[in-house]
Write a structure and sequence with these properties.
This protein is α/β, with parallel strands linked by helices. 53% of the residues lie in helices and 8% in strands. A five-stranded parallel beta sheet has the order 2-1-3-4-5, with helices on both faces. Strand 3, helix 12 and strand 4 form a beta-alpha-beta unit. Helix 2 packs across helix 4, helix 4 packs across helix 5 and helix 10 packs parallel to helix 13. The longest helix has 17 residues.
Length: 300
């Protein structure tokens, strides 16, 4: 039974505060499905205990159970298998001649709402996992491979040892052959768990590597669970969605790493500038080593 139906069956028992919560849950499900009782209460102007009482009044064991129900409903509606159907849904909400304007509005709105789901404390925790790792293995499938390319390049420029896992089957197995204790695996999963997610997370657990997930709606329900996750909705459920939100999270993560890694990133970027100048000179540094060549010409 869907949450809306459950609410309708208990309508006569709902207080004005209950109705404010219900209105938020049913009007903005993609956001409310990920909010804590504290944040939901703040958005609706009620006490957080009201959310707990509402959940029990509707027959749930507690607010987490109610939220899980809402998340499951969102997931069912947000994962049509036909890509054409997702585009049709987006276009059905787009006025004639206003594709660019509508897209900008929806993207900006999605970006503004990221702070409701990802805090700086979350970013700090994930950044420390990556900073402490011996090597970073990056995995994605489909459109999300763009994010692996972004993170792989930026992490290498910041002095991190990375391994690109954009592969499947035996090739993926070969690339994780040296994965072990002290390493970390960063995975991207949107709409559904990609083919290599389950075996990769399980194998990482067996060899003592930590796992980090960047995801959308699926992130709170995906199994097996990663060690840490950064999860934020990417816009209207069941529609065409771009990678703007996770790209923002990736960029914020890179900057957070640079802030917390005691100068490791900046030292590597400085060295990159020196080496780039050396190569631009064709290796003719007039007797200087690459690190000493053309100090003023940094490429960051």
């Amino acid at each position: 039974m869907e949450l809306r139906t459950v609410v309708e069956r208990h309508e006569g028992r709902l207080t004005p505060a209950d109705r404010r919560l219900v209105r938020e849950l049913l009007t903005y499900p993609a956001e409310a499905a990920f909010l804590s009782t504290t944040r939901l209460a703040a958005r609706t102007g009620v006490h957080q205990t009201t959310a707990v009482r509402l959940a029990k009044k509707l027959g749930f064991s507690g607010y987490p159970a109610l939220r899980a129900q809402l998340q499951a409903e969102l997931l069912r509606r947000s994962t049509p298998s036909d890509p054409a159907e997702r585009v049709r849904r987006r276009l059905s909400h787009t006025p004639e001649g206003a594709v660019l304007e509508t897209l900008i509005d929806t993207e900006v709105d999605a970006l503004r709402r990221v702070r409701d789901h990802v805090s700086q404390a979350h970013l700090d925790a994930v950044a420390r996992v990556l900073i402490d790792a011996r090597r970073l293995f990056l995995y994605a499938h489909g459109n999300a491979t763009t994010l692996v390319e972004l993170m792989d390049r930026r992490l290498r420029r910041s002095g991190f040892d990375t391994v690109d896992l954009r592969a499947q089957g035996r090739t993926l197995a070969e690339r994780v052959l040296t994965l072990g204790r002290g390493d970390a695996v960063v995975l991207f999963a949107f709409r559904a768990a990609p083919p290599g997610y389950v075996p990769l997370v399980r194998y990482a657990g067996q060899v003592g590597a930590r796992t980090v997930l960047v995801s959308d709606l699926i992130g709170t329900m995906i199994r097996p669970r990663p060690d840490v996750a950064l999860v934020a909705p990417r816009g209207g459920e069941g529609e065409f969605q771009t990678l703007t939100v996770p790209m923002l999270i990736c960029n914020a993560l890179i900057l957070t790493i640079a802030k917390l890694d005691d100068g490791r990133s900046m030292t590597a970027l400085d060295r990159l500038g020196h080496i780039a100048a050396w190569f631009e000179e064709g290796g003719d540094g007039r007797g200087r080593k690459p690190a000493e060549s053309r100090l003023g010409r940094r490429r960051t």
